[in-house]
Design a protein that fits this description.
Structural class: alpha+beta
Distance between the termini: 54 Å
């Protein structure tokens, strides 16, 4: 969320940014929020005047009463009563206007970084760099669930009967591989100096609206009926929420955290849920990385975060590339994002396995995440990135490590998490 003062002083810049994100329907929000804020501030000024006048009159009443001028004192009391009624009405008006301003401000997108390419959607994202040599074997690679089924490692039919589309049972070596990848990712990030955290898997509504836009909330979040609680779509939500309404001493920054959680997503929108496969699903597990830092350090940490994901995938013999997300593909709170995509030898193309985002002070302003510096308090910057998110990551792993005989090689880095195995062998 932007600073309302910034919007007042830079309305044309804010409108131009909205155009760059192809959200022309929001252009009217800028003038509307400025007008509402002006009315809100006038209401506050009038209320302050009335309070000051009330205090002044109250003193005069005391003097008049002490002088025996009861009639004059009672007349002034009537003025105080009338002003109290107006103050009450002004208070209600201020609350109403504040809510309207806040709602509009939460719908106006953050100012994107100058380096972000302009484009309408993810089809216009720009490739930055490739890591590793993409290989297409001279034999056909089966669909990922077909690979899993040769290990008796997945049951989507049973999951469909239990929970519907978008769910799965993982079993045997495939389930073990899933857990091994998560454990390896956890230790990989710990070795890079990040603190391991297991956060709450549910968050309150004020945290939800603090970490994402209304559009994302509607498309993603599952609400617990009868409770002010939502299931998290990623541990970033809970991790950023950890710092709500806090002031962290500057010398303790940066806070570098890596968190594990299950994730729950409605996946409402154009893509929908596949009946076959585990690429887009309602439930999965993920290892995340989150950074809370000083504003001048967020660019540095942004590059560190996406590089961590690249390095992890390369350590498992998986070719990847990085994509710069264009303006139309950025969620409203994001200033800049880089997606990491893994190579699919079956599809002969890359697909998304992680997304790194710099939100500057947008989440911090909504959640009042502040830093105590030498010259006073200021808003922190927040960043997040996916380390790994199986089972989607398993698709890349299985395809890139599958052998012609149906076995799957286990890279050395992962063997200690797989009981020392250097490969897993199909049961079918």
């Amino acid at each position: 969320m932007l600073d309302i003062k910034f919007v007042r002083e830079n309305p044309e810049l804010v409108k131009e940014n909205i155009k760059k994100k192809f959200q022309e329907h929001k252009l009217g929000y800028v003038d509307e929020v400025i007008a509402l804020d002006e009315e809100r501030r006038a209401t506050i000024v009038r209320a302050d005047e009335l309070r000051a006048n009330r205090n002044k009159i109250s003193k005069e009443i005391g003097v008049l009463m002490s002088q025996g001028k009861r009639e004059e004192g009672m007349a002034l009391k009537e003025q105080v009563t009338a002003q109290a009624k107006e103050l009450d009405e002004l208070g209600k008006k201020e609350t109403e206007l504040t809510e309207k301003v806040t709602k509009l401000m939460m719908s106006i997108p953050n100012i994107i970084d100058d380096s972000v390419p302009i484009g309408k959607d993810d089809s216009e994202n720009v490739e930055v760099q490739k890591y590793g040599e993409p290989v297409v074997p001279d034999w056909e690679i089966p669909y990922h669930t077909d690979i899993m089924e040769t290990f008796d490692g997945i049951d989507m039919d049973a999951a469909g009967r239990v929970a519907g589309n978008g769910f799965y049972y993982l079993m045997g070596d495939i389930a073990r591989l899933h857990s091994a990848v998560i454990s390896y990712a956890r230790d990989f990030m710990i070795d890079r100096g990040f603190t391991y955290v297991v956060p709450p898997f549910m968050i309150r509504s004020n945290v939800v609206t603090g970490v994402m836009s209304f559009e994302e909330m509607d498309a993603m979040m599952y609400k617990i009926e009868g409770e002010d609680l939502y299931l998290i779509g990623t541990s970033e939500h809970s991790m950023i929420g950890k710092f709500i309404d806090t002031i962290t001493p500057e010398e303790k920054l940066p806070l570098t955290l890596t968190s594990y959680s299950p994730c729950f997503r409605k996946e409402k929108g154009a893509h929908g849920i596949e009946e076959r496969g585990v690429y887009r699903i309602h439930q999965f597990e993920k290892q995340e990385m989150v950074v809370v830092c000083k504003p001048e350090e967020s660019r540095y940490w942004f590059d560190q975060l996406w590089q961590n994901t690249v390095d992890l995938f390369r350590s498992l013999d998986i070719p990847v590339r990085t994509l710069e997300c264009c303006s139309g593909d950025l969620a409203d709170l994001k200033v800049k994002s880089v997606d990491v995509e893994a190579w699919s030898p079956r599809q002969k193309k890359y697909f998304e396995v992680g997304s790194c985002s710099n939100l500057t002070d947008a989440q911090a302003r909504r959640l009042k995440i502040r830093v105590k510096g030498e010259n006073g308090n200021y808003l922190a910057h927040t960043l997040n990135n996916t380390v790994v998110a199986p089972p989607r990551m398993l698709i890349a792993f299985l395809e890139n490590n599958l052998n012609a005989d149906g076995t799957v090689s286990i890279p050395e880095a992962l063997r200690m998490y797989m009981g020392g195995k250097d490969k897993i062998v199909p049961t079918k």
